[in-house]
Write a structure and sequence with these properties.
472 residues, alpha+beta, Immunoglobulin-like, Jelly Rolls, six-stranded antiparallel beta sheet
Length: 472
Amino acid sequence: MKKIVALIACAAMLLSGCGTSKPTAAAEPAAEPEAEPIAEPADEPAEDVWETLEEAYIYAFPLVLMDATMTSATNTETVVTGKAPVNQFMHGAGTVKASFKTVVTPNVDTVYTQVWLDLGEEPLIFTMPAADRFFNVQLLDGWTNTVAVLTEPGEYAFTCTDWDGELPEGVTRVDFPTQMDWFIARCLLSGEEDLPNVKAIQSEMKLLPLSAYISGGEYTPPQGSYSEANDFVPVNKVLSMGPAEFFAKANELMGKNPPAAADAPELEKLAAVHVGPEQQFDPGVLTGDIAAQWKEMLTGLRPRLVAEGAKFSVKLDQWSYFGRPIGDYGTEYSYRAMIALGGLGANTLDVAMYTKTNTDETGAQMNGAHTYQIHFHSLPPVLDNGFWSLTAYGSDDFLIDNPLNRYCINDRSSFELNEDGTLDIIVSAAEPENTANWLPVNGDDFHLYMRIYTPDMAAIETWAAPVITMVD
């Protein structure tokens, strides 16, 4: 029987979906179309206005970043490397390299297939083939929540929550609360020689509108469009927006991507600065030196989010990872924004653990001017079809260019174990004599992610995580 793993109860938790329902707000719009839905916040102190504005920014940031990422990734007339029009597969030709700048902290030991979904017209039918390896499809809504993770072969209908049509027999329905959504398939790759096998799995994936599926399956996707103005790094684009541009975009997006019903108290608060569905942002609510205060707010954004997200951090010896509710955030808006800023598209914990460190065992920041040894007493514990990897990233959260084009060491790498079965990995900018266990970096600060896919959480509780020692 076909099944969907980790399906979220979207219909109960979210508005009726895909921008067609009445949004949750502090008050109903006035009967006259020209009336303002929210009164002017004339009596609110200037200090409180900026506090509310920052809260509104944190709330809306993931949605605006998703839109910018979709705009950049679909900015093409035809399918090309790294880009594809809306509702069309963007099959990875292999693992990403240092030139990849679309999403920070990318995974480099699986081959991605991505689709940016627009469900505004009609449902889409996805055919998921069988695979002999780790292969799943993560489905995210416009707010970066994981709607479902598909693990079983079969045919699935991607529908808006409020769609009330009929589906063909044998097709499993997956409801999305938003019109803008993201499809991320991850397929395990075991070296370049394994690439034809991954491509064979990709070739059996199909996606087409319901109407085309019903009429026999013949379908030619429409041509997309290209604009030079939409060639940008998404996170940089969003962080460069001023308040008027950012909140106008946020309000527009909320019309088609309704906030969750649980967000009603937050939206009532944000209405004071005219942020929310069917709102019109008015820069007139801002006071003082707007440009300077906006810049100050953005400068302090990352440290504030990191500080507020610390309560979700779980220690794993020298490492740490972000625990629940990662990937399905509920009303934890700062946590949601922090994860979006650091790595858009995070999985839920049962699918993957993202353990991170930027320091050695003494607590000092790691830097490529030194050489480090990472000692594994035992390898990370995983369940069936699970895997692990160790990847280095620069201070900009992107991969580090190196002459070997080696960005990670994983359980499929040709590393050499010690005689006692332990593993030592060398991390340095200088190439060692034996490169089998070498993870290259450059001469700057760096950090490490140890990803554990389908982790054995019971074993993790007693597992000794690897120790990082500076050896020069």
